[in-house]
Amino acid sequence: MQSAGVIQNYALFGATAQMRYTEPVATLDADVLVAVPSPDRLDALGGIYGFCAAKGYHPEGEAIQVRAWPVQFVPVFSPLTREAMEQAETADFEGVPFRVVRADYLAVIALSVGRSKDCARILALLESDSVSREEIERLAVRHGLAEAWRRFERRFLND
Amino acid sequence: MTEIEQLLARQARWQKSRKALSWPEKIRMAEQIRASVAQWRSLAGYNAAAAHKSKSVRA
Fold it and tell me: Tell me: the pLDDT tens digits for B1-59?
């Protein structure tokens, strides 16, 4: 997709990325951050849908069914998500290289969203030692999430 | 150690052993439980809708 010019860059995030660091978690779909050539167009994802359809992968709800997984392509929507995608690591998935968002960015994206399951994600990442409180704090402060991090610490981490 | 503490210790060991699996193995595990999670969520949605309807009827 990248070499065809449909997307400029991508990285897996959300629960499927989290599982690289923690124990398996229940999830219904795979989320992929993408940078598309014309993000301001109304049909910013049109190129991706067209490309997938040509390969036999069709939309189902808000996702595209790719074999066993519904895949949600999410255009980068903030400086944080753009940086998360650009700084992603290349992981090996049974011989296939795959860009995956790093644990610190996964935690801070979760902090920025703030639902219960996002709080659980941050705690799981901390517990797995894949990221430290200091690393999350540094990144959170840089992206204007200092207050959200302080609230999270008060609620879940302070004894 | 109480029985509950033993149970929690066993659970922690089990969780740690799952964390040590390879990423593809963990993805496959998530794939296996996806159908039942979807079913459970649709049932939860159905129950919420039914409760809402029942409230509307009573009102």
Answer: 889 999 989 988 887 888 889 999 999 999 988 878 878 878 877 777 777 767 666 65
Instruction: Write the residue in B16, B27, B38 that is nearest to A19 by C-beta.
Output: B27
Is residue A14 classed as helix, strand or coil in its secondary structure?
Answer: coil
Residue A103 has a CB neighbour count (10 Å cut-off) of 23
Interface of A with B (CB under 8 A): 15-16, 19-20, 22-28, 68-69, 91, 93-94, 128
Q: pTM higher than 0.80 for the full model?
A: yes
d(CA A140, CA A146): 6
Structure tokens at A147: 């207050």
CA distance linking residue A29 with residue B31, whole number of Å = 9
